[in-house]
Amino acid sequence: MSEQANDALVIAGKRYNSRLLVGTGKYKDLDETRDAIAASGAEIVTVAVRRTNIGQNADEPNLLDVISPDKYTILPNTAGCYTADDAVRTCRLARELLDGHNLVKLEVLGDQKTLYPNMVETIKATETLVKDGFDVMVYCNDDPIVAAQLEDMGCVAVMPLGSLIGSGLGILNPHNINIIMESAKVPVLVDAGVGTASDAAIAMEMGCEGVLMNTAIAAAKDPIMMASAMRKAIEAGREAYLAGRMPRKKYASASSPMDGLIK
Amino acid sequence: MQINLNGDSLDVRDGASLTDLVEQLGLSGKRIAIELNMEIIPRSEHPTTQLAENDTVEIVNAIGGG
User: Fold this and answer.
1) Alpha-carbon distance A66 to A68, whole Å?
2) Does residue A125 carry a pLDDT above 80?
C-alpha cells in the first residue's frame, strides 16, 4: 500500500484519499461546478436539498447528473435550517433522495447575519439523527466542551468553524481547535472560514483531519485554478504535519557549517 | 382536485398516485424525494400512494450548496 493510501481519512468506516471536502454552491453553472470539483480532487462533496423547481425545463441537467453519486460520496447538508426539526426533516428527505445513504452534514444556524451555529438546536437534531441511524458530520462552534459532547453523542466527525461561513477570514481561533483535537477520537475538520490556500494549509499543519470549503473556491476569480491550489495546500499542509515542523527559535541558526571558512 | 405542491396549488386528476403526479410534472426518472403531508413516501410506494384533495406535497432535489 502506498504511503498516501496508508494516510487515508476515515469517516464512518470509509477511507478517503482526499482530505479536502467541497461544497457545490455559488458556481456560475454546472460546468464550472463539475470542473472545479474535479480540479479539487475532493471525494466528498456537499449538496443542499431544496424544493424542485416545478415547471422548469425537464431536460435541464440536475446537479447529481454532473456530480454523480457513483463517483463521489455525496454529503447532503442542512444549510438554511434554523431548527432541529427542519434539519432532521431535511436529512430524512436526503436519505430518500440518495437511496438510503446515511452520511449527512448537520448544520443548524442561529441567524442570517452570522450563520453561526445554534448549538442547542444542533444537539437536539444530533440526538434524533444518531438514533435514526444517520452518520452525522456536525458543523459546530469552536467550543471544546460542545465538540466533546457531540462526539460522545455519536457524531462521526466534528467540524468546528474556522471563521464565519463565507467570510474568508481564515482560522481565527487555532488554539480552540487545537484543544478540540487533543481529546477528539473522531476526525476534526475545519468547516467554514477558509479564504485562500494558506488558510487550508494552516488547518492541515495544525493536525486537522480535513477541511470543508465552498466559497473560497467558488468565489475566486478563477474557481478551477483555486480548486487546484486548495488540493495542493491540503496535501502540503498534511505532509508538513506528518513531517513534523522544526522548533521555533528566538535567534538565528546558521545552515552552512563554520568549519573550512576561507580566511 | 387541488393539492398543495411546494407551496403552490396544483390541479391533479381525482385518484392520481404519486407516480401520476411525477409524470404530470415531467419529473419521471429524476432524482427526487417526496413528502406527503409531512411524511416521506419511499420511491417504491409512489405507484400505490393515492393523493387526496388538499394534500400537501413537497418534492425536493439536490442543488448546489456548501
Assistant:
1) 6
2) yes
3-state secondary structure A4-16: HHHCCEEECCEEE
Q: What is the distance in angstroms between the CA of the first residue and the CA of the last residue of chain B?
A: 38
**Spatial contact of A203 and A190, defined as CB atoms under 8 Å apart:** yes
Judged by DSSP in three states, A106 sits in strand
CB contact under 8 A, B64 and A79: no
Assembly ipTM: 0.94
C-alpha cell at A126: 444530533
- Contact with chain A for residue B35, Cβ under 8 A: yes
* pLDDT for res A157: 98
Catalytic residue from among A105, A113, A124, A250: A105
Rounded CA gap, A104 and A29, in Å? 24
